[in-house]
Amino acid sequence: MRVSSDSPRPAEVFARYRPLVDDWPSFLEALDRPLPRCAWAHPERMEVATLATTLGTLGFRSEPLGWQADALRLPSDARAGSCLEFAVGGFHLQEEASLAPVALLDPQPGERILDLCAAPGGKALRIALLLGRTGTLVANDLVSGRLAPLRFHMNRLGAANVVMTRWDASSYPRAAGAFDRVLADVPCTCEGTSRKSPEVLARVGLREISRMRPIQVGILSQAVRCCRPGGLIVYSTCTYAPEENESVVDEVVRGFGEGALEIVPARLPGLRSAPGLAAWDGRRFVRGMEGALRLWPHLHDTGGFFVAVLRKPEDGPGRRAEPRSAAPAVDEELWRPVLDRFGLTGEDLGELRPVPRGRRRLSLVPAGLALPGQPRPEATGLPFLRLDSHFPKLATPSALVLAPLARDHALDLDRPAAETFVRRSPIPWGPRWSRAAAPGWWLTRYAGLGLGLGEAAHDGHEARLESCFPKAWVPGGSGG
Ligand SMILES: C[S@@+](CC[C@H](N)C(=O)[O-])C[C@H]1O[C@@H](n2cnc3c(N)ncnc32)[C@H](O)[C@@H]1O
């Protein structure tokens, strides 16, 4: 770990947890090692074996995570986010411990899920893709600036089922309608992130812990209110402090009263973890708290994490979802010519359908998208078409979804050409493609992955393909 000589040492900062840790020297040793990275394959775009081969070819050694079938572990210095396959949404990078709350939330296709503190969005992205092209994820955060990276990765990964809202989670409107599952991945002191961000060691302490606790109690309480009877609530933090973990869950479970909430045992086969604490600082917690899950870094070579799973009984108070459906369908004449050009039909959109996004744009959303009654969404679905040019222009997020299905005006690029394309450089047409360079839009793909939209251009004697790949998406650029 990169700590300067005058930085506080983990052994001192975390000394009060010594009685809680089974192997103190191993814990301190783990905090001193760089944190491995983790990559997971997009469920519709890439097999995990293909991801492993691709990363290997690029020089990144990986091994299966084991406890999550679609994920791989990478060395801490593997800069896999700068490759072509990442840029076009073939996979995502996320810290291994962060996969645990979503694995325990266990999203099921078609469900309506609320992520109350969603930014910057690793867990929301994973929930959205596990829901598939059905269901609804409402991804909320208080800080609008922090929602920008979430929006970028949603577009890159083609998550059409996401509605973004900005609201204080502790008063999230009940008018949003009830949710099948709610994630409360609350703000915390982040003690468990010291392997990646050693500077937290200088910040943490009892004062900061006491400041966080009421915020966490408020957010978890509202998570319970927003969940339907029989639904599941997952509470998580990346900190060790019992005051921010078991103690928060204890206060909320007691607050809702006898029988209103059950603590569900949270175990993930293959992930070495420790149970929640039954007591701390002379206070016994409610029955079942050992069912919570603690990740101490030395147990599975991860960051530190805490997860508790709560269930509301079927016959408990609360309402079933009363969501609004998405905006009315738009006139087919607006989007049909675009599908026609690429030899696509309405069937190729599957469960997705176009809806208006402002006056001059369309988005794709799942037909059953269930919008919150309140708050007003900041963004909904996947950008589909811009209607302000003479021929509607397909937006890159939807081009990535549709390119693998295209039957006309589609080009299969080799790797050098694909690399050129995502770096926004023109590709000379020459004899490489058997089709003549018909003017207008073309879809491009590489090894089964959509790459985006290009435009055939002629300058008198030579034809070329101009790339429309977004500047902010260029591998190694600001967006990735
Ligand atoms: C631990 S981070 C969430 C990480 C996120 N779930 C992920 O996987 O990337 C906590 C988030 O809570 C947000 N936050 C803080 N106070 C909040 C509040 N009162 N309501 C909603 N979000 C809040 C912060 O902006 C921050 O993005």
Describe this structure in words.
By secondary structure, the protein is α+β, with helices and mostly antiparallel strands. The chain has a domain at 409-480: Archaeosine Trna-guanine Transglycosylase, Chain: A, domain 4 (Roll), CATH 2.30.130.60. Strands 5, 6, 7, 8, 9, 10, 11, 14, 15 and 20 form a ten-stranded mixed beta sheet that branches. Strands 23-25-26-27-24 form a five-stranded mixed beta sheet. The model has no long low-confidence stretch (mean pLDDT 93). The chain binds S-adenosylmethionine. S-adenosylmethionine binds next to helix 6.
Number of helices: 14
State mean pLDDT (0 to 100 scale).
93
- CATH domain class of the domain at 409-480: Mainly Beta
Distance between the termini: 25 Å
Main beta sheet:
10 strands, mixed
Which regions are unreliable across 5 or more consecutive residues at pLDDT < 50? none
Strand content: 15-25%
**Bound chemical compounds:** S-adenosylmethionine
What structural category do the secondary elements indicate? alpha+beta
Please give the CATH architecture of the domain at 409-480: Roll
Principal-axis shape equals globular
Helix content range of the residues, please?
A: 25-40%
CATH topology of the domain at 409-480: Archaeosine Trna-guanine Transglycosylase, Chain: A, domain 4
Radius of gyration: 24 Å
> What's the total number of strands?
27
What's the short version?
With 480 residues, the chain is α+β, with helices and mostly antiparallel strands. It has a domain at 409-480: Archaeosine Trna-guanine Transglycosylase, Chain: A, domain 4, CATH 2.30.130.
